[in-house]
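ADP-ribosylglycohydrolase family protein
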Amino acid sequence: MTPDQEDRAIGVVVASAAGDALGSQYEFGPALDDAVTPEFGVGYFGHARGEWTDDTSMAMPILRALADGRTLEDPGSLDGIVAQWRSWSLTAKDVGAQTRGVLAPLTTPTAAASYTQSEALHRSTGRSAGNGSLMRTGPVPLGYLHRTAAELAAAAASVSRLTHWEDDNSDACALWCLAIRHAVLTGGLEIRAGLDVVFDGMPQSAPRRARWEALIDEALTPGAHPRDFREGNGWVVRAFQSALAAVAGATSLIDALERAVRGGNDTDTVAAIAGSLAGAIHGANAVPQEWIGVLHGWPGIDAAELERLALRAAGPGGGVA
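Structure:
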């Protein structure tokens, strides 16, 4: 990898954590005017200034598995991720309702048990499309920079279904991860190309693909803002559109994260999602040092450790078959 690609790989994780922490105190709040500059503060659920929330905490086991050279096709890797999620959820300040509904009943926290509970919960309620799998998906592409796009899409969907069985979640995570991979490798924003990968060979995929094409077009409409998708942005589709509008309409990484927070409602999650893609485009060097200095969270990790883990995950020893 070139130095610029390494910087962008680090940016995926660091900028996502920064967006998460920046949006924490504004969670469930109203949309903000452009004149308002979001600042770090005490979160809605009591997270300290600069402390990330469940969005980044749930990404950590994925990042650590890839940094250790494990692949997400390995059942043992997924078992470890689920076990860490389950342990974390017992004392976490906040756990999403869908995620808690899957993890809480697991007496043996394995991937197989998680998939079973995830599907059962979806079948019993008829829906499971919260944004909780998209918020944590940022690290996945780092282990697939040297592998095929199809392998990445499959891995993203597989990790998503551990807690969110809905097709919308699998599609959103795969599309987002493919955009992150493209951005790390090239520095550019390209979201539509992932449609060819995600829906290639999928039986009766035409209506599903057409729907996502329309959703992406809506988010990329000139002048679109995360505020336009505030209502229901706890839904994975609206969170996807909010984050995409934040990134596509931004002039810088800081602008992207501030736009995401100004959208209102689920601000930390939208900003975390936006940060993973904005960081892949602009790189970690675009994250202000004063932000870097305050970032921290479970499990006792700071920005320096995020950088180390991201480099290991993206390098030849991490997540590469």
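Residues 3-23 form the longest helix (21 residues).
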